[in-house]
Amino acid sequence: MRMLLIHSDYLEYEVKDRALKNPEPISEEQKKGRLDEVLAVFISVEKVDETNPEEVVEKALTEIKDVAGQVKANRVFVYPFAHLSSELAKPDVALDVLRKLEERLRDEGFEVKRAPFGYYKAFKLSCKGHPLAELSRTIVPTGEVKAEEVPEALKKEEELVSYWYILTPEGELIDVDKFDFTGHENLRKFANYEISKSRIADREPPHVRIMLDHELVDYEPGSDPGNLRYYPKGRLIKGLLEQYVTEKVVEYGAMEVETPIMYDFEHPALEKYLNRFPARQYVVKSGDKKFFLRFAACFGQFLIKKDATISYRHLPLRMYELTRYSFRREKSGELSGLRRLRAFTMPDMHTVAKDLQQAMAEFKKQYKLSMEVLRGVGLTPEDYEVAIRFTKDFWEGNRDFVVELARIIGKPVLIEMWDQRFFYFILKFEFNFVDNLDKAAALSTVQIDVENAERFGITYYDEEGKERHPLILHCSPSGAIERVMYAILEKQAKLQAKGVKPMLPLWLSPIQVRVIPVSDEVLDYALYVAGKLEGAKIRVDVDDTGDRLNKKIRKAEKEWIPYVIVVGRNEKEQNTITVRRRSDGRQTEMQLEDLIREIRSQTEGFPYKPRPLPLLLSKRPKFRG
């Protein structure tokens, strides 16, 4: 059983339609329901629960009572929620478990309501937002062992005791419970999310509807969940981002390599590293040997460095790979559009540094590089929050260095501190985007690794010719490419909610200019204009459909086209164009060469790819619906 527990001001639902052929019989009164000041418990009863339903009920009761006691709730709303698991129990077993749990909660003195089982329901919920307001629990019957092999680091991550603070650019370290978040609402949301450690997505984030409606990305029912399909426009955006980040990293000084996606479980160094990295693996068998799919580019790059002859003169030595794909077997309830996937594209740089002084200098440079990379995709420091994580010893020895990181970003940052180091790194930062559901997702990150050079046998020769183990920095200056797309779309959803027209950065827009002829008699001029733009490496198309002019313009608006050119007889005769700019709504009559200069001024320095779809709209297929 999987449970998502949310301490709420209220939860209300309304039945919309049947989800099962034979749902639970209900009365008219049961088609709607609400409870105020309630602990909402969203539940998926799983296949494994069929082995001992009674035990599962009692374990769930214990967990709910524990959480209810902590948040001081005496009302419980039991809500069937199949989306938390892909391994669901039979409907009759699931309904029986839910009914018994409802009964046992009443026996314990709770006021209980249960939403009907087997229906599509609309629901509204107001989460209280404190650190214990969102919690998740997994219940497994005794004797049942999950098939997946969970690394030791992932188990320890849940057991670690963390101390949470806010660090100001002035160097003041304030306990998170005592910090005044006035003016830092996004930071408050991020801190609550991190402390609660609830990663489950209980609602669809807005970027999902955008990626589907714009035919960018879609779910792939023929694959494992968390593996997506990309339509032409989505593939173009993803490809441009991949090219942009790679160019930035190579320009920074990294050497690009390529390594395998599959590794031997029994390789001694890899086997040890697996238990130090908090990620679930995909396991592949070949004959009697067991392999795992990489969850980062570490393994391949470490093995290259192990075999290389490295001098202190070569340091810092930077190596980079754009991994398409890396694989992590995330929990099904955590999968959410582009935010969290099981197969993702990770720009991954590893830097060999001779000592802590050189590593920290490189860390600061890569911190700034990450800010620059995100700024290029339209994300400024106002759009993300910073987390810096380290041990108490590191803080005491390097306080000024950490404060400088907060000063560079120019705002308070979240600090997670541990009494002792468990992970392979001594220092780590992340830039985290907080979305429209108040969920956070890490984008850029850098870590200083103090273990793996020795584990993998990586050495360099110092000034005296002696072999030494270096430190290694792990850096993704953008985070996963898919997650960058998620952040860009979620930011636009936020702006749209404020009444601002959403739009992609011009260099990322699949179609930068649409030419609309007012009639067929000027189609030749529309094609001439499009040809000139295409020759200037601007992505352009022509709406040659039989729709009315107003409908064509609305269609371009709906597709977020940055520039719309309307051409009629007057424009053709005078060899001009009439341009509508999405950014400010202005309409201008101008020369085509002036528009080309305007667009080039905004896209200079960014990569280019040609139009991903046919020139004429009449020649395009529809990929969805």
TrEMBL record:
Primary site of residence: cytoplasm
One family name in Pfam for this protein: tRNA-Thr_ED
Alphabetically ordered keywords of this record: Aminoacyl-tRNA synthetase, ATP-binding, Cytoplasm, Hydrolase, Ligase, Metal-binding, Nucleotide-binding, Protein biosynthesis, RNA-binding, tRNA-binding, Zinc
UniProt cross-references to SUPFAM superfamilies, sorted A to Z: Class II aaRS ABD-related (SSF52954), Class II aaRS and biotin synthetases (SSF55681)
Location of the Aminoacyl-transfer RNA synthetases class-II family profile domain: 209-502
Required co-factors: Zn(2+)
This enzyme's EC code(s): 6.1.1.3
Molecular function in Gene Ontology: aminoacyl-tRNA deacylase activity; ATP binding; threonine-tRNA ligase activity; tRNA binding; zinc ion binding
Keyword flag Ribonucleoprotein: no
CC annotations in GO: cytoplasm
Cellular location(s): Cytoplasm
Family per similarity comment: Belongs to the class-II aminoacyl-tRNA synthetase family. Archaea-specific ThrRS editing domain subfamily.
Protein name: Threonine--tRNA ligase
Native organism: Thermococcus thioreducens
Gene coding for it: thrS
